């Protein structure tokens, strides 16, 4: 079985399938955190009517299509978040598999991808980045030099500078505008994100996060039902996206920018 992982096509396929299946579990974590329910019990069921899902109703993405985005029992609409999380989890698992291969780095980043996907979608819905996710992520990220080929100084300074910059931004915005534009959850999240990308790639990660957030903000500002410049947009998902892009292609992007 171990020898099969030496074949790229097999490993990539397994990574994709694993990512899709994990995405189904991440959906459970997101939904049950938002409603204050246990992640362990009960089993998978329709949030509207309590219908217990059969095995074929639990197939990532495919079940959503087969069911027509509706519960088989009550015909209630299935939230778009379910296939979105599953697809993102599968695609990211595949991209990181292509980048790092069957290594300890891939396994480690899979853990972080799960934490960041759950945190991002909770933040999108509630504007909250739970401590139960941000604290373990920070501890694990700052410890990565113990089991990954990364530099201690880069990791520690990346985490501390990332969190420190956002703390300063939060306090500056509070003093100038009297608005808490950056929550403490973003600061805690930056401990892990900064540690993962390292000090040298931290500015690029922040830039990518800001550009992604700006692109979405423009869409929000154009919505007639929006609140103009006071429209609240969670920043956590964009920080996670910026970190993922940096881990995948940061060095290439930085080299391209320097050449320009």
UniProtKB/TrEMBL annotation:
Per UniProt, the keywords (alphabetical) are: Cell inner membrane, Cell membrane, Hydrolase, Membrane, Methyltransferase, Multifunctional enzyme, Protease, Transferase, Transmembrane, Transmembrane helix
Signal peptide: which range, if any? none
Query: What is the catalytic activity of this protein?
Result: Typically cleaves a -Gly-|-Phe- bond to release an N-terminal, basic peptide of 5-8 residues from type IV prepilin, and then N-methylates the new N-terminal amino group, the methyl donor being S-adenosyl-L-methionine
Q: Name one GO biological process term.
A: methylation
The UniProt record lists the EC number as 2.1.1.-, 3.4.23.43
Domain Prepilin type IV endopeptidase peptidase, chain residue ranges per copy: 110-218
- Name of the molecule in the record: Prepilin leader peptidase/N-methyltransferase
């Amino acid at each position: 079985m171990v020898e099969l992982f030496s074949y790229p096509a097999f490993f990539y396929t397994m990574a994709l399938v694993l990512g899709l299946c994990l995405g189904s579990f991440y959906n459970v974590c997101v939904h049950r955190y938002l409603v204050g329910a246990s992640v362990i019990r009960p089993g998978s069921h329709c949030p509207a009517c309590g219908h217990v899902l059969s095995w074929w109703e639990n197939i990532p993405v495919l079940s959503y299509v087969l069911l027509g985005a509706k519960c088989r029992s009550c015909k209630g609409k299935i939230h778009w978040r379910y296939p979105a999380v599953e697809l993102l989890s599968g695609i990211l698992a595949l991209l990181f598999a292509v980048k790092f291969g069957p290594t300890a780095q891939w396994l480690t980043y899979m853990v972080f991808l799960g934490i960041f996907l759950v945190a991002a979608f909770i933040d999108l819905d509630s504007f909250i980045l739970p401590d139960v996710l941000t604290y373990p992520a920070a501890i694990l990220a700052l410890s990565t030099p113990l089991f990954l080929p990364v530099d201690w100084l880069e990791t520690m300074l990346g985490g501390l500078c990332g969190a420190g910059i956002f703390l300063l931004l939060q306090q500056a915005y509070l003093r100038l505008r009297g608005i808490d534009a950056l929550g403490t959850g973003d600061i805690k999240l930056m401990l892990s994100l900064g540690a993962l990308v390292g000090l040298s790639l931290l500015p690029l990660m922040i830039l990518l996060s800001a550009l992604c957030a700006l692109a979405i903000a423009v869409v929000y500002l154009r919505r007639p039902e929006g609140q103009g410049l006071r429209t609240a947009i969670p920043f956590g998902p964009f920080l996670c996206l910026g970190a993922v892009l940096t881990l995948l292609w940061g060095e290439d992007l930085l080299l391209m920018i320097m050449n320009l």
